[in-house]
Specification:
heterodimer, A: alpha/beta, Rossmann fold, Helicase, Ruva Protein, domain 3, five-stranded parallel beta sheet, 48% helix, 14% strand, elongated, B: alpha/beta, Collagenase (Catalytic Domain), five-stranded mixed beta sheet, globular, binds adenosine-5'-triphosphate, binds magnesium ion, binds zinc ion
Chain lengths: 449, 182
């Protein structure tokens, strides 16, 4: 069982119209029947049934209107869409009065046809069958598993599950790299919108002049170079989730524009006249302190309250305790699985440094640090000297005030670099091996494991 | 090297940049796991031109390919850089015979410049590759998928193409496997 589509009959005297349209509908998953004349169509309907009929208005012998009349009396359940050339729109309107569902003016936009078919299907409640089918299919793509064992993250996961089912606007705050986008995706993936688009838009990266076009799209020819119409992010996200990232960076004008759409749920494309209404779930994020910005008059208070219906605040990585280590190990496993490098894990010392560092760039910085270490490591274990310099230097600075401490660190690093080859290390340090042994003992330097 | 059975061939229609063909080839080989030979280019057939609309008829292009194609490759993807439509639709990004042998894609609406945006070569090539994988998917009998991130998702806009991944969702991947078994 494969066909989730509708049975559609195309009635048109032109062969290429039947074939091209039939093929297009087949690509879309519909079952297609082709009839070259009204008579053939009526004959086919004697022993077969269709849900929708795409009926050409102007055909030799039996006209579309005649076919329509017959279909509407014998098979009233079939929804008829008339296809007409521009000249005969009046007749098409006439056809509507005679029971046609709607009409299309040739040539029509693919989107237009799609929407019409969808509307008919909804009307015939076939759509429900589709939805049921969709729900039976397990979501194997999923979002990447999110790591978090600390109480703060556990609370957030619960909140994500609770809020996903609703349509509430969610505001996610947190320092850079704390996983705001990841959480936004998780909200989408846990909602019943999950098969519809998750559309991110990074407002901070956009020049003010482009915000409007990015969000609302433009009509063909709206400005020089706009050869084709562009669909804005709001339209793209219809039925799904729109992730407005970095809302703290919105210009005053963009704030006004956005407020209007959020209030009215509709907008017009640039250069367009038709109002577009969409059904989108908004998730917004920022690493800035919006409340403070409201106080300082940089962010509209009304807009802030539009966003701040449910708020999720991601803690910085340094406050997540052992999650830091779990994340590091997880990233290492991921990198390892992508290559053939046989990496076992981190040395205890490396882990201690990772755990102790304050990670101003949060999870993203950790991910990058692990990747770097993964690239430079030669053996099977990632040791402290493989970590990026700024991360281990922090720890070194802390106890490197005395000459002794500096000496200890230096020896330790040279030993690590030479893989604890004493002769080589002694040579590099320009001391003899016995002296080196003595210093190792004195400073209690141990090989990392 | 001559393309043999089970193989895909890429048929440039008109001049297409080698770099782009190579990108499409790499994607097809990667996704479908078969070789994808690049055939010598053919001229776009005159008969497909619709003067009144200043566009080419994708159905006629596929018919032309059916007549002029080499016998060996199991599937052939036409690549052209002209705007495509059908007698009844204002435009199409591409077309394919569902469960058949031929498909075609157009590059015209894949360039950011066509939407008044700055050029972006990598994005453009990625879109071309996605279009190619999608249309060929139809020749394996695959229909459109309702998952927005699946390559078989049907979007009537290039912005929607950008949301798709260059791969099949598990369900479409399974259908593809089934289709290839027989
Ligand atoms: N809890 C987590 N588990 C696994 N991976 C995570 C987690 N949090 C973040 N990441 C990863 O860290 C990286 C940064 O996350 P993300 O882009 O969501 O952060 P952000 O808060 O949106 O950052 P920015 O403020 O810079 O936009 C991503 O690669 C993401 O997959
Ligand atoms: Mg982000
Ligand atoms: Zn398609
Ligand atoms: Zn799919």
């Amino acid at each position: 069982m494969d066909t989730v589509g509708t049975r559609i009959m195309i009635v048109d005297d032109e062969e290429i119209v039947r074939v091209s349209l039939g093929n297009w509908l087949k690509e879309d998953g519909h079952e297609v029947m082709l009839a070259a004349s009204g008579l053939e169509a009526l004959q086919m309907l004697e022993d077969r049934i269709c849900d929708i009929m795409l009926l050409d208005l102007k055909m030799p012998r039996m006209s579309g209107l005649e076919v329509l009349a017959k279909v509407k009396t014998s098979k009233p359940g079939i929804q008829v869409l008339m296809m007409t050339a521009y000249a005969s729109v009046e007749t098409a309107v006439d056809a509507m009065q005679k029971g046609a569902y709607d009409y299309l003016v040739k040539p029509f936009e693919p989107e237009e046809l799609k929407i019409l078919i969808k509307r008919v299907m909804e009307k015939q409640a076939l759509q429900q069958e589709n939805v049921a089918l969709k729900q039976r299919i397990e979501d194997a793509f999923g979002t990447d598993e999110i790591v978090g064992e600390c109480p703060a993250m556990k609370t957030i996961f619960q909140l994500v599950r609770d809020v996903a089912a609703s349509n509430s606007t969610v505001l996610i705050t947190g320092e850079s790299g704390t996983g705001k986008e990841l959480i936004a995706k998780a909200i989408h993936a846990n909602s019943d919108r999950k098969y519809m688009p998750f559309v991110p838009v990074s407002l901070g990266a956009l020049p003010e002049t482009l915000v409007e076009s990015e969000l609302f799209g433009h009509q063909k020819g709206a400005f020089t170079g706009a050869t084709y119409a562009r669909r804005g992010r709001f339209e793209l996200a219809d039925g799904g989730t729109l992730f407005l990232d970095e809302i703290g960076d919105l210009s005053p004008k963009a704030q006004v524009d956005l407020l209007r759409v959020l209030q009215e749920s509709k907008f017009t494309r640039i250069g367009g006249t038709r109002e577009v209404s969409v059904d989108v779930r908004i998730v917004a994020a920022t690493n800035r302190d919006l409340r403070q910005m409201v106080k300082e008059g940089q962010f509209r208070e009304d807009l802030f309250y539009r966003f701040n219906v449910v708020s999720i605040e991601l803690p910085p990585l340094r406050e997540r305790g052992d999650d830091i280590v779990l994340l590091a190990q997880r990233f290492l496993r991921e990198f390892a699985s992508k290559t053939n490098k046989p990496i076992k894990g981190f040395s205890n010392e490396a882990l201690a440094i990772i755990r102790g560092y304050d990670w101003p760039g949060n999870v993203r910085e950790l991910e990058n640090a692990v990747e770097r270490a993964f690239v430079v490591v030669k053996g099977e274990v990632i040791k402290s000297n493989h970590l990026p310099f700024n991360i281990r230097s922090r720890e070194e600075q802390a106890d490197s005030r005395s000459l002794k401490a500096v000496e200890k660190h230096h020896i330790r690093r040279v030993l690590a670099e030479t893989g604890w080859n004493i002769s080589q290390a002694a040579k590099a340090l320009e001391i003899d091996r016995v002296t080196l042994y003595n210093k190792i003992k004195k400073y209690d330097i141990q090989e990392e494991t | 090297m001559l393309a043999g059975a089970n193989d895909i061939a890429i048929q440039p229609l008109g001049a297409i940049r080698p770099e782009l063909l190579a990108r499409i080839q790499a994607s097809l080989q990667n996704i479908y796991g078969s070789t994808a030979a690049i055939l010598p280019p053919l001229k776009i057939p005159r008969e497909a031109w619709i003067a009144a609309r200043q566009q080419y008829d994708s159905t006629k292009i596929i018919r032309f390919m059916t007549r002029s194609a080499p016998a060996a490759p199991e599937r052939i993807l036409g690549v052209c850089d002209v705007d495509l439509c059908t007698p009844i639709l204002t435009f199409v990004f591409g077309a394919a015979e569902v469960g058949g042998r031929f498909a075609v894609i157009s590059l015209q609406r894949l360039r950011p410049e066509a939407y008044g945006l700055p050029a972006d070569r990598l994005l453009f090539m990625q879109r071309c590759a996605k279009a190619a994988v999608h249309e060929l998917g139809h020749t394996f009998g695959l229909r459109h998928c309702y998952r927005y991130d699946c390559i078989m998702f049907s979007c009537c806009s290039v912005e929607g193409t950008d949301l798709k991944q260059e791969r099949f969702c598990p369900r479409c991947a399974e259908k593809l496997r089934d289709a290839r078994k027989c």
